[in-house]
DNA sequence: GTGCAATACTTAGCCTAGCTAACTTAAACT
DNA sequence: AGTTTAAGTTAGCTAGGCTAAGTATTGCAC
């Protein structure tokens, strides 16, 4: 078992391939889980960016990988649904801020609970050792994905 | 450190919460990675279901968590782009099958390479121990997500 | 073996979610 | 004061989702 640079590189490659496969699976799974929901996945995702306070349009667009006009329309629909309100930033009149309403927070929490309940159900089918392996990997996943 | 049933349940719950947070991150990340791509994420995803041979419309719709009419339209666009061809099943004239074209396979492979390269780049920033934790968790993730 | 229910899709019409190009307004920098 | 840059919005296009309704084929009942 040598540990040359070339060897490490091929390990990384194989790991990336496996991880890619798992990501495909989980994306498909999450799509199936959220199908037939009133608030869309994308809307929940935007609401999720607002938990720690108001955000600017530009920030939201960047975080979600969409252009500004797309975020404008997303937010407009969320406003129409009463889930967020638009606001202004004192000091720069160009900036628009977006903030959760109580109803928005409620919807967000409901979606969160749905996903967590789904995951918990699946997790409870695993063995203690399997869950321990996941717990050990979580900080790494965090580092990897942020 | 007791190991009662109630304790295990709360462990599962906390694990589900963390996993949920990581999943949110990775979904955002993947969206940012595939933004500005010619073939959409959803199209790549459907192409990915065809690697092991032709599939029926109904199967594809179920796998991707969409209704049949949605899959009809998705496949129509893929046909128009020359990435798949429609076929028939001998024995049941109602069934429509969908199969990759060489160009479809090519696009699929390109998308796969993009994602794998992206992941490999990030993975290579991790320590050997961190990657080992991921390797240990991969089979569990597979069990969890399929 | 005819009739009818179920199965497998498609079409039509509606909404959401993404894009670019072009516009408006406000800030910032000569 | 005048121009450039920054922050959003509007308009118009395409992709991706849904339901309702239609078509054709299969399979089953009798």
In words, what does this structure look like?
- Two copies of one chain form a homodimer.
- Chain A has 146 residues and is mostly helical.
- Helices cover 67% and strands 12% of the residues of chain A.
- Chain A is built from six helices and three strands; from the N terminus they run ααβααββαα.
- The first copy, chain A, has helices at residues 5-34, 41-48, 57-63, 68-80, 102-123, 128-145; strands at 55-56, 84-89, 92-100.
- Chain A has a three-stranded antiparallel beta sheet.
- Chain A is globular and about 60 Å long.
- Chain A starts with a helix and ends with a helix.
- Chains A and B meet through helix 1, helix 5 and helix 6 of A and helix 1, helix 5 and helix 6 of B.
- The first copy, chain A, binds a DNA duplex (30 and 30 nucleotides) through residues 35-36, 40, 42-43, 56-58, 66-74, 76-77, 92-96.
Percent range of helical residues of chain A: 55-70%
Strand order of the largest sheet of chain A: 1-3-2
Please identify the structural class of chain A as seen in this structure.
mainly alpha
The count of DSSP E runs of length 2 or more, i.e. the number of strands of chain A, is 3
Q: Kindly, what is the distance between the CA atoms of the first and last residues of chain A, rounded to a whole number of angstroms?
A: 32 Å
Sheet-strand content of chain A, in percent, reads: 5-15%
- Most extensive contact: A-B, 58 and 57 residues
User: Order of helices and strands of chain A, N to C?
Assistant: HHEHHEEHH
Annotation field: number of helices of chain A: 6
Low-confidence region ranges of chain A: none
Oligomer: homodimer
The biggest sheet of chain A, with number of strands, parallel, antiparallel or mixed sense and barrel status, is:
3 strands, antiparallel
Summed over residues and divided by their number, the pLDDT of chain A gives a mean of 92
| Overall 3D shape of chain A | globular
